């Protein structure tokens, strides 16, 4: 068990280092992907933690990581929108969103949730070692496997629902994809099909959000008709990607 624990702890340490690095990149404004990468670190952390629920310290770490995800989500949405506006030549509208982002980044970096997450993650390897010494990890191995299988089963059930909710499917696909990457020996799923479905649903979600914003934000209205056409196309593409994923899960490849 010690070798497995060492590998698990190494992954948490790597995420701790990545969290600090992406935060530094965001503070220095060195690149446009810093926030996106920070959010990926948080998603990977949550995927590693979810099957470990019940161990001491997991609840706290999950709560603060979820809060960082919640706080950073509107900023990421704004980043994606600003990039789209720049791509379509809506320079003034894009600049207004960039100014809002410049105000939002420091607030995220100063948020107590981020510092709490960094502190809790730094303490986690020691707590995991203690849990291993007490035999908690060894007794929880079957629970980890069962919890991961339940994630896959929830996705498969949602995929065959004729009244499926794309919002819920998007979250389930992301959850299973990152769980498979975090626990590859415990959860065998077609990661490439999950990525394709996640990308298609992401395109759909972006355009849905942009259309809704355009109804309330006047400077976005020139883009509304174009986004509505893209939204209709994204619905078709996401349904095709979800069907492919469903078939791959059934075949087990």
Description:
The chain has 253 residues and is an all-alpha fold. The chain has two domains: 1-139, Four Helix Bundle (Hemerythrin (Met), subunit A) (Up-down Bundle); 141-253, no CATH class. It contains ten helices and no strands. The longest helix is centred in the N-terminal third of the chain and has 30 residues, at 58-87.
Topology, pairings included?
Elements: H1 2-28, H2 34-49, H3 58-87, H4 91-110, H5 112-133, H6 136-139, H7 141-159, H8 166-182, H9 191-216, H10 224-251
Helix pairs in contact: 1-2, 1-5, 2-3, 2-8, 3-4, 3-5, 7-8, 8-9, 9-10
Order of helices and strands: HHHHHHHHHH
Number of helical elements: 10
Radius of gyration based on Cα positions = 20 Å
Which class do the helix and strand fractions yield?
Answer: mainly alpha
β-strand amount: under 5%
Mean pLDDT: 92
Which assembly state applies to the chains in this document? single chain
Basic shape: flat
Largest sheet composition:
none
Which second-level CATH architecture of the largest domain applies? Up-down Bundle
How many beta-strand runs? 0
Quick one: CATH class of the largest domain? Answer: Mainly Alpha
List key phrases describing it.
single chain, 253 residues, mainly alpha, Four Helix Bundle (Hemerythrin (Met), subunit A), 2 domains, 10 helices, 0% strand
């Amino acid at each position: 068990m010690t070798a497995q624990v060492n590998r698990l702890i190494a992954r948490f340490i790597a995420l701790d280092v990545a969290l600090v690095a992406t935060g530094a990149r965001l503070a220095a404004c060195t690149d446009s992907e810093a926030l996106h990468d920070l959010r990926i670190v948080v998603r990977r952390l949550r995927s590693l933690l979810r099957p470990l629920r019940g161990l001491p310290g997991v609840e706290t770490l999950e709560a603060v990581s979820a809060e960082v995800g919640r706080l950073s989500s509107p900023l990421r949405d704004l980043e994606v929108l600003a990039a789209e506006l720049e791509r379509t030549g809506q320079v003034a509208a894009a600049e207004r969103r960039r100014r809002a982002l410049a105000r939002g980044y420091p607030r995220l970096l100063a948020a107590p949730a981020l510092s709490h997450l960094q502190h809790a993650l730094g303490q986690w390897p020691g707590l995991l070692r203690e849990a291993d010494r007490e035999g908690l990890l060894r007794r929880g191995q079957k629970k980890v496997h069962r919890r991961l299988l339940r994630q896959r089963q929830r996705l498969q059930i949602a995929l065959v629902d004729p009244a499926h909710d794309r919002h819920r499917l998007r979250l389930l696909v992301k959850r299973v994809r990152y769980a498979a990457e975090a626990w590859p020996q415990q959860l065998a799923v077609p990661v490439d099909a999950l990525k394709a479905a996640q990308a298609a649903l992401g395109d759909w979600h972006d355009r849905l959000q942009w259309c809704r914003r355009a109804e309330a934000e006047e400077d976005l209205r020139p883009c509304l008709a174009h986004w509505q056409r893209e939204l209709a196309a994204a619905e078709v593409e996401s349904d095709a990607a979800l069907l492919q994923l469903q078939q791959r899960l059934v075949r087990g490849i």
